[in-house]
Design a protein that fits this description.
single chain, alpha/beta, Quinone Oxidoreductase, Chain A, domain 1, 2 domains, seven-stranded mixed sheet, six-stranded parallel sheet, 10 helices, 33% helix, binds NADP nicotinamide-adenine-dinucleotide phosphate
Length: 298
């Protein structure tokens, strides 16, 4: 039953993202303490009046991976007719995250060089496209999946770095692609060994004049939840490490969502999706997606 400031949504599709898995596994800082709990942070559905909307913020214990859910009225957003249910369910979460990471956190300025660590994931692929759209200079995409890496050269990446290589080769690639002007912005979806290799690659071995600052934004942990950070990294480079810093103010969040949905409707942010019925969610759970997003349909 919806309360005064809520609406019931008849769910059409809900994406299965890393954060949904982390929340269900109890490994996310926002994991529930009370059970039962229904999975799924957000999705697409119809209101009682037939309007198709993207929704989020389900009232616990309800979630998006269900036939119906209940959400605050303030967290439903109309979806343009030319966005499919799958794209409308899959795009907002990684899209808004990538947009806000580049604009609100990294404060990317036109012409700055950007490195995306974990560029072959769904969010990383969007970050590559968005960095270019926002006027980045050189965009370097680092990941493991060779096929997706190659495709990024058509959608915004100026160079790619293969991460399933010996560590010394990876470090050499980071150093080579940094060129003379270096990376001003690094968006990090991996953490763990790839980030350690990157930090090692930018560490100076002698006294050197400080170059332009590198702002590294920590967003995900697909390759590891911890790193070893030698003190020399921070003393020999002009590096700032930032996080995504939780949920931004509502006006900033909703403005980003609006922009992502409009660009999505214009076809700027294509992403690959795979439909899976809710009855098969268990087998989908362990599937990595290989660069495409699984979308659960009730
Ligand atoms: N805080 C936020 O707002 C926010 C929003 C979106 C995402 N995230 C986080 O960002 C991370 C990525 O999200 P996503 O949506 O892009 O996930 P995704 O679509 O599931 O992709 C994960 C990617 O990580 C790659 N990967 C895993 N282990 C790796 C390793 N050891 N070395 C190199 N690549 C590795 C995978 O490569 P393969 O295909 O080769 O396996 C895949 O491309 C997750 O930790 C997620 O929770 C945070």
């Amino acid at each position: 039953m919806a309360e005064g400031n809520e609406v019931v949504v008849h769910v059409l599709a809900a994406s299965l993202k890393p954060v949904d898995k982390q929340i269900a596994a109890g490994s996310h800082y926002a994991s529930p303490r009370n059970f039962p709990f229904i999975c799924g942070l957000d999705g697409v559905g119809r209101l009682e009046n037939g309007e198709r909307v993207f929704f989020g913020g389900c009232r616990a214990p309800y979630g998006a991976m269900a036939q119906r859910t209940v959400v605050p009225k303030a967290f439903v957003f109309p979806i343009p007719a030319n966005l499919s249910d799958e794209t409308a369910a899959a795009l907002p979460n990684p899209g808004v995250s990538a947009w806000l990471t580049l604009t609100f956190r990294a404060k990317l300025r036109p012409g700055e060089n950007v490195l995306i660590l974990g560029a072959t994931g769904v969010t990383g692929q969007l970050a590559v496209k968005m960095a270019k759209l926002l006027g980045a200079g050189r965009v370097v995409a680092a990941g493991r999946n060779q096929q997706v890496l190659q495709s990024l050269l058509q959608t915004g990446a100026d160079a790619i770095i293969q991460l399933d290589a010996p560590t010394e080769d990876i470090k050499a690639s980071f150093a080579r692609e940094a060129g003379k002007s270096g990376y001003q912005v690094v968006i990090d979806y991996l953490w763990g060994p790839p980030t350690e290799a990157f930090l090692s690659a930018i560490t100076h071995t002698g006294f050197a004049a400080i170059g332009a600052e590198t702002r590294l934004v920590q967003v995900g942990e697909s390759a590891g939840s911890t790193i070893t950070l030698p003190a020399a990294v921070l003393r020999s480079t002009a590096l700032s490490i930032l996080g995504t810093a939780g949920i931004p103010p509502k006006d900033v969040l909703f403005d980003a969502l609006q922009k992502v949905i409009s660009h999505g409707a214009e076809g700027d942010f294509h992403l690959s999706t795979q439909r899976v019925p809710l009855s098969e969610v268990e087998s989908a759970w362990e599937h990595s997606g290989s660069g495409s997003r699984i979308v659960i349909v009730p």
